[in-house]
Amino acid sequence: MTLASMKRKYEPRRSAEGEAQATSAMIASLAAEGYETVAAPFGHALVEAAGADDKIVGLSADLAKYTDLHIFANAMPDRFYQMGMAEQLLMSAAAGLAREGFNPFATTYCVFAARRAYDFIAMAIAEENLPVKIVCGLPGLTTGYGPSHQATEDLAIFRGLPNMTIIDPCDADDIAGMVPQIAAHAGPVYARLLRGAVPRVLTRHKPDYRFELGRAQLIRDGADVLVISSGFMTMRALDAAGVLAEDGIDVAVLHTPTIKPLDTETILSQVQKGGRLVVTAENHTIVGGLGEAVARTLLTGGAAPTFRMIGLPDAFLEAGALPTLHDMYGLSVRRVVEQIKGWM
Amino acid sequence: MNQSSSEAGANMSLALRAWNIRRKALLMGQVQGQGYIGQALGVADVLAACYFHALRYRAQDPEWEGRDRFLLSIGHYAIALYAALMEANVLPEEELPTYGMDDSRMPMSGMASYTPGMEITGGSLGQGLGIAVGMALGLKRKENPAFIYNLMSDGELGEGSTWEAAMSAVQHRLDNLICLVDFNNQQADGKSTDMLAQVPEEQKWAAFGWMAQRVDGNDMSAVVAALDAARAADHTGPRVIIFDTRMCKGVEFLENREITHFVRVEPDEWATALAVLEEGKPQ
């Protein structure tokens, strides 16, 4: 086979709305209509946390503006280090600062942390259990730029790393709540980041919701289906639950922003209420992410519900417009509804 | 300059310190019947000059905040650093026979959590200099005048991460960072100069903005002078010293053996090597 023969043919594709859509800017807002948004929640929360902890420093590898770290850099310029487009250095230098007693927040994109800098995170940070906070933009399928920027396997990669705490926040309140808690955490953290205009989702469904590191929380109860979700898939699950309610399907949503260590106690106690279809929903490949972590929890915990997974396929994904891709790969509200109905 | 001057032997010559380091390394090699003895013998003079001339440290308080930090990027050189740390009374010499054994504090590859005086976990090559950059930034934040020394191998010059760190150290004007390169021109598969170290290294580092020196790493007075010059230099950026060293230095029959990355020493040869070293003991 020649290289040329591997090129795809042009075949017009249609989105759910019927029209071909343009690939959005690198960072598209994930907010559905009707959701209030908050600008740069990570940057503002970090400035606040740094006001209380003078050991906090920020580093980025030429992506401060695209991870909302520029808010911190502008507010506290002498506590920000621009490391250049050098992710291996970013992680090693963050390790060195942690060794000298500082509390470094290092930002890049998920793909570059998980793929390019992995050995440096593993050996310089995780093996030594240093309190470096790695906060990364473009988790899973949140850009239409194709596999170079789509971190569809980052959770699988980092779940295998001892000492690492992993967080997949859903919304602006999760991010604002997570920052001071990971700042106070004594070990390494990998946190996925939503940046720019980030929706406020969870308190709309559960007004007293507050992020708690290591804890899964029931956002909505329901008698027929239990969705266990993380990241923006909790937003999709909640929206889908609203649609399914109209068809008489009662869906509970258990939001699980801490992927590791997983809140197995809450997951098991929810599942053991019994009789419900259990569905995991994640913005990640179905290999090695939240779904498989929950599956292991259920099997080893002696729970055997009917179990299904919503997540990205084990494949390099296409480029295109994000709404088109979310629909194609099953992450849109419409497709979540369709999948759950199909399993009932 | 080191703070262990109350210890016996404060006036011992650097040559004798280097000899002691070689001897301890050979004794450790004898315990295991193997080890990176070629590298340890080659770098012993540099380590002696570091631990008994250049570095500030407190032997009984290896985490003293005022210490100069010495990072071993090359994890497999651990046998050499253990020898130096024992000679410096940071590690008790009674533990020498445990080298590489189960439960030892001296594993075959250096790890921070195992060994007093071991600042980082090396071994995944090309990580030390980047960590050194972060520590140097941290020392400056704390207005701590200590130096960071990073000992790396010529093979690590092939790692891209080394050059990421090299550029960054200049960008951040890290005049508290001294990189030591052990250039023994021997990597796992052959000569470093047949791989990625073909262009003279001191020219590369100078072009990157470093104060660069290249000296014979087995000439003690040259090593000492280079360390002094690196510390005292009126240069706003980082400093590097490339030490040309000879593998197996000090044990002639090993020096003359076909040199490889992992020098084979037969079981009966360890005693011979120690005897040969004994003959060359400095006065």
Mind explaining what this structure looks like?
Chain A is α/β, with parallel strands linked by helices and 344 residues long. Chain A has 2 domains: 37-199, Rossmann fold (3-Layer(aba) Sandwich); 214-343, Rossmann fold (3-Layer(aba) Sandwich). Chain A is built from 13 helices and 14 strands. Chain A has helices at 41-52, 69-75, 87-99, 110-116, 118-126, 154-159, 172-183, 202-205, 233-246, 264-271, 290-300, 322-328, 333-343, and strands at 37-39, 56-60, 80-82, 103-109, 133-137, 165-167, 189-192, 197-199, 217-220, 225-229, 251-255, 258-260, 277-285, 307-312. Chain B has a single domain, classed as Thiamin diphosphate (ThDP)-binding fold, Pyr/PP domains (Rossmann fold, 3-Layer(aba) Sandwich). Chain B is 39% helix and 10% strand. Chain B contains 9 helices and 5 strands; from the N terminus they run H-H-E-H-H-E-H-E-H-E-H-E-H-H. Chain B has helices spanning 14-32, 37-54, 78-87, 128-141, 160-171, 201-208, 220-232, 252-255, 269-279; strands spanning 69-72, 148-153, 177-183, 211-216, 239-244. Chain B has a 5-stranded parallel sheet with strand order 1-2-3-5-4, sandwiched between helices. The radius of gyration of chain B is 18 Å and the shape is globular. The A-B interface holds A 57, 81, 83-84, 86, 88-89, 91-102, 104, 119-120, 122-124, 127-128 and B 111-113, 119-121, 123-124, 126-127, 129-139, 141-142, 160-161, 164-165, 167-168, 171-172.
> How many strand elements of chain A?
14
Biggest β-sheet of chain B, characterized? 5 strands, parallel
- In which range does the helix fraction of chain B lie? 25-40%
Average pLDDT metric of chain B? 93
CATH class category label of chain B = Alpha Beta
Characteristic key phrases:
heterodimer; A: 344 residues; alpha/beta; Rossmann fold; 2 domains; seven-stranded mixed sheet; 35% helix; globular; B: 283 residues; five-stranded parallel sheet
Summarize the structure.
The complex is a heterodimer of chains A (344) and B (283). Chain A is α/β, with parallel strands linked by helices and 344 residues long. Chain A has helices spanning 41-52, 69-75, 87-99, 110-116, 118-126, 154-159, 172-183, 202-205, 233-246, 264-271, 290-300, 322-328, 333-343; strands at 37-39, 56-60, 80-82, 103-109, 133-137, 165-167, 189-192, 197-199, 217-220, 225-229, 251-255, 258-260, 277-285, 307-312.
